[in-house]
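Appendix C: a fully annotated inverse folding record. The material below is reproduced so that readers can follow the format used throughout the book. The structure is listed first as tokens, followed by the designed sequence.
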């Protein structure tokens, strides 16, 4: 599906909460699959300014180019499958493939040729169907940092939020305002750059 509205709820977890949820939901180590996100933006973060984000996700030998743009309270995902060669060419040579993602970026008045690869985030992810939605446990590593996260993807915002909050309450996990992975990645990147410049 090239375009889809992403209705998603997320909460950062402590390592103990992550272990507790994994156990309660019967998630085994073998249920976690590795996926890699490569993030792109212009040098002056023009995509970030528009509250948008661009990534290549590599998972089980498949590569997908995804642009996330604001859509009310949610996000609109524009997805485009890439071949191994197209993914490598974008990562190494900044050669942006033709297609709907490129057209949408041009529509944001951003030159795709100005986009550069800023870094990579590795995630071990488990997914399971849960009360009409998709429940996700993530363990992510990026820029010498590790974090744990619970996500719930739902078809509708009202019922999805109710299910998500009920789950947190059941396991006595506090609601924590949680930014998406690309925001966390860029905040950590900025912190590292500031630390480097102050040395």
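Designed amino acids, in order:
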């Amino acid at each position: 599906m090239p375009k889809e509205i992403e209705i998603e709820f997320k909460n950062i977890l402590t390592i103990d909460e992550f272990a507790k949820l994994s156990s309660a939901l019967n998630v085994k180590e073998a249920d976690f699959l590795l996926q890699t996100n490569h993030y792109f933006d212009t040098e002056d973060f023009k995509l970030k300014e528009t509250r948008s984000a661009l990534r290549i996700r590599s998972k089980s030998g498949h590569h997908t180019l995804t642009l996330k743009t604001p859509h009310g309270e949610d996000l609109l995902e524009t997805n485009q499958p890439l071949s191994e060669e197209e993914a490598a060419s974008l990562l190494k040579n900044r050669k942006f493939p033709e297609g709907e993602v490129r057209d949408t970026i041009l529509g944001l008045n951003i030159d795709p040729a100005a986009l550069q690869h800023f870094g990579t985030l590795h995630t071990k992810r488990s997914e399971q169907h849960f009360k009409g939605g998709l429940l996700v446990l993530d363990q992510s590593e990026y820029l010498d940092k590790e974090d744990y996260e619970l996500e719930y993807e739902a078809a509708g915002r009202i019922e999805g939020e109710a299910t998500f909050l009920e789950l947190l309450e059941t396991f006595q996990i506090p609601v924590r305002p949680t930014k998406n992975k690309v925001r966390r990645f860029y905040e950590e990147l900025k912190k590292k750059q500031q630390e480097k410049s102050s040395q």
